């Protein structure tokens, strides 16, 4: 019996080259609230839920988390990110990869920890229309990565079993979320995490970027 493979993609650092814009936007937002953190510390947590991300930083710096502070930080981050969103481009091969899956009749969806306010420009750059394609954003689930809700919801919208899905992401948070919902994880190096880190977090294969994944699609069950 043939099992149809479906693909669930992270967005930032996986399909669009936006990780470092997010890092700098978070740094600006935190700096405005008097939270002094090095860029590398912020980068290490990109890809997880924004709320969890902020909670961890505030604990590390000894500041008290309040709903008002979280909302201000989220709004400052979104404003800072959207000022520089014109610099964000699809990663090499991203459009071609999604087109190849569609042409081959292979189901796919995008599941991002970002909210629609920051995800929309990136989706536009990819030519992905949420009214025609399955797109799950942070606004649509209770918890984001490393919880598996985003991917479980995406599989549900595709009407496919999560155990037949390949989760493609660039961060350890993607791979941990894939493990927790019993999907297979494929890591990409295009978000700044190393191969060893992705493999230790559960990635069964690691490729450079979407273009490299497209070249090796058959290796992960993407028969067309």
From TrEMBL:
<dbReference type="InterPro" id="IPR036412">
    <property type="entry name" value="HAD-like_sf"/>
</dbReference>
<protein>
    <submittedName>
        <fullName>HAD superfamily hydrolase (TIGR01509 family)</fullName>
    </submittedName>
</protein>
<dbReference type="InterPro" id="IPR050155">
    <property type="entry name" value="HAD-like_hydrolase_sf"/>
</dbReference>
<dbReference type="GO" id="GO:0008967">
    <property type="term" value="F:phosphoglycolate phosphatase activity"/>
</dbReference>
<dbReference type="GO" id="GO:0005829">
    <property type="term" value="C:cytosol"/>
</dbReference>
<keyword id="KW-0378">Hydrolase</keyword>
<dbReference type="InterPro" id="IPR023214">
    <property type="entry name" value="HAD_sf"/>
</dbReference>
<dbReference type="GO" id="GO:0006281">
    <property type="term" value="P:DNA repair"/>
</dbReference>
<dbReference type="InterPro" id="IPR006439">
    <property type="entry name" value="HAD-SF_hydro_IA"/>
</dbReference>
<dbReference type="Pfam" id="PF00702">
    <property type="entry name" value="Hydrolase"/>
</dbReference>
<dbReference type="InterPro" id="IPR023198">
    <property type="entry name" value="PGP-like_dom2"/>
</dbReference>
